[in-house]
Design a protein that fits this description.
Largest sheet: 7 strands, parallel
CATH architecture of one domain: 3-Layer(aba) Sandwich
Number of strands: 13
Radius of gyration: 21 Å
Strand content: 5-15%
Number of helices: 10
CATH topology of one domain: Rossmann fold
Bound molecules: NADPH dihydro-nicotinamide-adenine-dinucleotide phosphate
Distance between the termini: 58 Å
């Protein structure tokens, strides 16, 4: 049975990748951060008690900033494939926390590559690179386009990209960079713009919210559907030779177009609900990210099938459904006088 280690397994992509690899018969190991509350919501449906003889998903506490932990884990698991998906992946947030972002995204990748090199575990390595590395570079972006990163997250990703190449060329590791353009899903983090939009659409439709505050609507992105992208990641590790690949749909659409598609799907007029908030502006914005996925199509046979409109519809439908089945955790669970949040008390 092939074994994979996924960092960032609790994230959007990590959860889809774990699901894909389990379906392919892998034993999957995931790195998770210890937290004071559970952070495994996206993978709970995949988890079986580790004592179950059929269990194939195993979770290990660890952090990308702890190179020693990564080294010992790698030695004990001895995976065939390592997918490095962990990261502080929020671009706007990286302007507020640049050092923290670099510690995880740049240094974390270095720690993991060093762990592979020194443990001598014979494994293949995938680095989750980002289209944000292209920044100001002229679209459409290919594997040969210049990097001109415009955020701390993107500069940290560029470091990780070149370090991955360096370890491939210098130490002969099977190490690849996926350069993924935006990919979204119902599992997308709630502070990312697409999910923020689709959650708001569901709430506005249900009469639970009136307005949605957004920043600049003009930037163009190449939006794809996350489950298709994790298939591309896996394919990159199944080739004879390691190489770098762009994963993209090849079509660019603005944030405004995504907003329009999401609101329209719910029968709403977006201009009546969307308001501008300058707090969401970035010190440096990237106007257009548009990928050319020709190489991945030719060499990996990888193609996307879900376009932006369908993606917006999938996400709105999922958020409408989630709202209808919402739990009411922690509301009025304190049994002390004066603590009630209920208006009727
Ligand atoms: P998410 O933000 O959903 O997931 C990030 C994951 O990294 C989470 O599991 C998170 O854990 C984990 N993580 C964060 N910090 C640490 C740390 N210090 N140690 C260990 N784990 C940590 O991102 P996505 O799933 O969307 O993306 C996966 C990767 O692909 C990221 O590196 C991202 O930058 C990259 N990428 C994503 C794109 C996209 O459009 N989705 C586009 C291009 C690249 P926790 O759950 O505890 O927070």
């Amino acid at each position: 049975m092939r074994k994979a280690l996924i960092t960032g397994v609790t994230g959007q992509d990590g959860s889809y990748l774990a699901q894909l690899l389990l379906a392919k018969g892998y034993e999957v190991h995931g790195l998770i951060r210890r937290a004071s509350s559970f952070n495994t919501g996206r993978i709970d449906h995949l988890y079986q008690d580790a004592r179950d003889p059929d269990a194939r998903l195993f979770l290990h506490h660890g952090d990308m900033t702890d190179g020693v932990r990564l080294l010992t884990l790698l030695g004990s698991i001895a995976p065939d494939e390592v997918y490095n998906l962990a990261g502080q992946s929020h671009v706007r947030e990286s302007f507020d926390q640049p050092r923290f972002t670099a510690e995880i995204v740049a240094m974390g990748t270095l720690h993991l590559l060093e762990a592979i090199r020194h443990s001598k575990v014979d494994c293949r390595f995938y680095q989750a690179g980002s289209s944000d590395m292209f920044g100001d570079s002229t679209p459409p972006h290919t594997e040969r386009s210049l990097f001109a990163p415009r955020s701390p997250e993107a500069t940290a990703k560029a470091y990780a990209h070149w370090t991955t190449r360096n370890y491939r060329e210098g130490y002969g590791l099977y190490a690849v960079n996926g350069i993924a353009f935006n990919h979204e899903s119902p599992r997308r983090g709630e502070t990312f713009v697409t999910r923020k939009i689709t959650q708001a659409v569901a709430r506005i439709q249900a009469g639970r919210q009136d307005h949605l505050y957004l920043g600049d609507l003009t930037p163009v992105r190449d939006w794809g559907y996350a489950p298709e992208y994790v298939e591309g990641m896996w394919r990159m590790l199944q080739q004879d030779q390691p190489d770098d690949y762009v994963l993209a749909t090849g079509t660019g659409r603005s944030v405004e177009e995504f907003v329009e598609a999401a609101f329209e799907h719910a029968g709403l007029e977006w201009r009546r609900h969307v308001r501008f908030d300058e707090r969401y502006l970035r010190p440096t914005e990237v106007e257009e990210l548009l990928g050319d996925p020709s190489k991945a199509a030719e060499k990996l046979g990888w193609r996307t099938s879900v376009g932006m409109e369908q993606l917006a519809q999938i996400m709105v439908d999922a958020d409408v459904d989630a709202l209808e089945h919402e739990g009411r955790h922690w509301v009025d669970d304190v049994r002390l006088p004066g603590w009630s949040t209920s208006a009727t008390d």
